[in-house]
């Protein structure tokens, strides 16, 4: 409200109530406004007092919950790290055992392959020697038979 509007209201009140009653009305309005402010302040203080206990309780509960959540979170992280480390160790053990088994199998296969190779070479040498002997025997037999045939032929021719 601006100055001219207040002035108009004062003039209307003066006309309605008269100049004698205007101070009494102003006094009553002032007293009523003072009582209203007092009541408002008192209600505000009462609300703040009653809510301060509630706010304090809420803060305590909130702090307790935060503390519990932090504790459980740290415990969970610790448990997860333990499980993770355990899994890593188990994986390393399994990997190490698998590598060792693979190396043992590889060595065993190499040894078996070398034995088979040596046996094949040995058999091939023996087989080759047998073929030579048989070839030599066959040559000797062919040579003898040829000589016998030629000796018999000459003998018949001489006779």
Description of the structure:
This protein is mainly α and 159 residues long. The protein has one domain. It has 2 helices and no strands. The chain has helices spanning 3-17, 22-158. The radius of gyration is 62 Å and the shape is rod-shaped. The termini are far apart.
**Biggest sheet descriptor:** none
Inertia-based shape: rod-shaped
Query: Which blocks of ≥5 consecutive residues have pLDDT under 50?
Result: none
- How many β-strands, per DSSP? 0
Mean pLDDT: 84
Query: Structural class from helices and strands?
Result: mainly alpha
The number of helical segments is 2
What portion of residues belong to β-strands?
A: under 5%
Q: Radius of gyration, rounded?
A: 62 Å
Q: How many domains would you count in the coordinates?
A: 1
Share of helix among residues?
A: over 70%
Topology as a string of helices (H) and strands (E): HH
Kindly report how far apart the N and C termini lie. 174 Å
Explain briefly what this protein structure is:
The chain is mainly α and 159 residues long. It contains two helices and no strands.
Secondary structure layout plus pairing:
Elements: H1 3-17, H2 22-158
């Amino acid at each position: 409200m601006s100055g001219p509007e207040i002035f108009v209201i004062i003039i209307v009140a003066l006309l309605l109530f008269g100049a004698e009653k205007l101070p009494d009305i102003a006094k009553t309005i002032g007293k009523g406004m003072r009582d209203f402010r007092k009541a408002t302040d008192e209600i505000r203080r009462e609300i703040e007092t009653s809510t301060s206990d509630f706010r304090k309780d809420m803060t305590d509960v909130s702090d307790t919950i935060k503390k519990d959540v932090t504790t459980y979170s740290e415990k969970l992280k610790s448990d997860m790290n333990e499980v993770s480390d355990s899994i890593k160790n188990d994986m390393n053990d399994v990997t190490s055992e698998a590598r060792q088994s693979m190396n043992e199998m590889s060595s065993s296969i190499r040894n078996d392959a070398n034995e088979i190779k040596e046996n094949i070479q040995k058999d091939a040498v023996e087989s080759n020697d047998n073929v030579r002997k048989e070839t030599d025997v066959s040559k000797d037999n062919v040579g003898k038979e040829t000589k016998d045939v030629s000796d018999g032929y000459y003998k018949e021719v001489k006779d």
